[in-house]
Write a structure and sequence with these properties.
It is a single chain. By secondary structure, the protein is mainly alpha-helical. The chain contains 24 helices and five strands. Strand 1 (about 160-165) and strand 2 form a beta hairpin. The protein is globular, with a radius of gyration of 24 Å. About 40% of the residues are buried.
């Protein structure tokens, strides 16, 4: 019988345990030690070793506290300690400008496997403000950008919308988009728009505040535009993003074809916004035991160690699997140290939950592979962080489609394309929207009306004639706009990179042996350099078309099933 709650005792017995106190003081001491090394300008090897040691000691602390809080948001002790840890790490954030300038003065060849940290520091140092200003910016962000983001999070978590006379949380209203009856979905859409309209003013102020602060700091740091710092964070070049965007624009007719096929299946000429997540087909129940066995078997055929990691996650209780009151929604995977992970999920007996679990177990396999690298090289940019999860998810979907009944096959195929379309088409609209917002925000604040107009224009360019209606408040819905800048395009990159890797593995049986090495090295190189080491040219649209080919095959398969 599969245990459904995780076991955190291998990390720490409790918050008051000697082990937890030792780790806490260990982190405090390692930050102080790093500070001392920087002050005396110690040799590069000592500084890098101190950086690795800090990362090793801090990882279990972050994992333990975040896991306790997200599994039970009423755990005040864990929340308080998590906040204290954030304050403790503010000392490290204050050190960052000094650390960057130190690394920027070193020779990359002397850094060994840490070469990328020196190379990135040389670039970042060109954009650093004076140290006092950088420290002040870090401290003010708590009451600036982070406060605006918390306002969005808090306000949107309390918004309700009235459906059939009943006031429902906005999250429940949005979940009605998955309802099989169109009348229910349409009512949810109309109620949701009214709810966002009632709160558009404070949300517009929050978005103006977030983008205004970012734009001001980017100008002060000398970036050519607001996109540039995100390219550096994601370890990609502008030419790579341009190649990705070119392939995405080319693919829009493919996704519009998918939307028209779905509309036909729903008995409509064109989809409305409230139909995007409407179910097609019917699925069977998937017990947790079936999911465990299916994932293990299907991963073993391609990557035996990925299957072993998945089984260890079940057997050693790395996972908290079932929904309950007080537990956060969604799913995540985070490293806990030693090549192991913690996974939170909200499993329901559906194939969608099987797919989500396979996805998170892919992240766990990635963390397992990264344990081969020094600790400071295990932080993978978002662009590359989805590689193993996309691979896992695709392997499981492909296997399920071969075994499913016609009705369940239709449900699985549509759900897969529905998710891919969000990552390619909707994220294209988000990228356009955010680009336009940054352009205009330099001059002044934008009104709610202007945010809505820009959102509708972006959706028009992305969805085109495939949709009969739009959603003018997606800028209010998506917390990503408030928590980060250009947060969304790395998901498109991650999906298509992962699918291109999958397609390569299909074409070249020998690639499976190099797959784990690709994951292990994903924190050690830029995306382009990592790609070159494995035969990929990320600056060419042809590479991205390889990933889109997998999705084109799925659209063709859907068309055959519906004909």
């Amino acid at each position: 019988m599969t245990e459904t709650t995780w076991d955190l005792t291998p990390l720490f017995p409790d918050l008051d345990s000697p082990e937890f106190r030792r780790a806490w003081e260990g982190v405090r001491g390692r930050i102080a030690h790093l500070k001392g090394l920087l002050e005396k300008e110690a040799i590069l090897g000592e500084v890098l070793a101190a950086l690795d040691a800090l990362q090793e000691e801090a990882t279990p602390l972050w994992a333990y506290l975040y896991a306790r809080f997200t599994a039970n948001t009423q755990d005040e002790a864990a929340l308080a300690k998590l906040s204290e840890l954030e304050v403790l790490f503010l000392d490290f954030q204050r050190l960052r400008p000094r650390l960057v300038r130190y690394l920027a003065l070193q020779e990359p060849e002397e850094a060994g496997p840490h070469r990328i940290l020196v190379e990135e520091a040389k670039e970042e140092a060109l954009h650093l403000m004076p140290e006092g200003e950088e420290v002040l910016a870090a401290e003010l962000s708590l009451s600036g950008r982070q406060a605006w983001a918390k306002l969005h999070e808090s306000l949107t978590s309390q918004i309700t919308a009235v459906v059939d006379g009943e006031a429902l949380p906005i999250t429940k209203v949005r979940n009605l988009y998955f309802h099989p009856e169109e009348a229910v979905r349409k009512k949810a859409y109309e109620a949701e728009l009214k709810a966002w309209e009632a709160h558009e003013v404070p949300l517009a102020y929050a978005l103006n505040g977030v983008k205004g602060e970012a734009s001001a700091l980017n100008r002060r740091r000398g970036y050519r535009d607001d996109l540039e710092p995100t390219l550096l964070r994601n370890r990609i070049r502008r030419k790579t993003l341009a190649a990705l965007q070119e392939a995405v624009r080319e693919s829009l007719p493919l996704f519009r074809r998918y939307y028209l096929l779905k509309a036909k299946a729903l008995g409509k000429e064109r989809l409305d916004w409230w139909d995007l997540f409407a179910p097609i087909g019917e699925g069977r129940r998937w017990t947790l035991e079936e999911a465990r066995r299916f994932i293990r078997e299907k991963l073993a055929a391609f990557a035996p160690r990925a299957a072993q990691v998945a089984e260890a996650a079940f057997a050693e209780r790395w996972m908290d699997l079932l929904p309950r009151k007080g537990k956060v929604g969604g799913a995540y995977c985070m490293p806990r140290g030693g090549g192991k992970s913690l996974i939170l999920a909200n499993y329901e007996e559906s194939f969608e939950s099987v797919s989500t679990l396979a996805h998170e177990l892919g992240h766990a396999y990635h963390n397992f592979a990264l344990a081969q690298a020094p600790a400071s090289l295990r932080e993978v940019p978002m662009t590359l962080a989805e590689t193993a999860s996309i691979m896992n998810e695709t392997l499981v979907v492909e296997a399920a489609l071969k075994e499913a009944s016609p009705e369940e096959g239709l449900l699985i195929l549509d759900a897969y394309l529905q998710g891919a379309a969000q990552v390619v088409v909707d994220i294209h609209s988000r990228f356009l929207f955010e680009s336009w917002v940054f352009q205009r925000r330099k001059a002044r604040e934008l009104s709610p009306r202007e945010f809505k107009e820009l959102m509708l224009r972006a959706q028009e360019e992305a969805y085109g004639e495939a949709l009969a209606t739009r959603h003018p408040y997606m800028w209010a819905v998506k917390g990503h706009y408030y928590g980060a800048d250009f947060y969304n395009y790395p998901y498109t990159f991650g999906l298509l990179f992962g699918l291109a890797v999958y397609e390569t593995a299909k074409e070249d049986p020998g690639f499976a042996e190099r797959y784990e090495r690709l994951l292990a090295e994903s924190g050690m190189h830029s995306a382009e350099e990592l790609g070159r080491r494995f035969g990929f040219d990320l600056e060419s649209p042809a590479f991205w078309r390889k990933g889109l080919k997998v999705l084109a095959e799925k659209v063709e398969a859907l068309e055959k099933r519906l004909s």
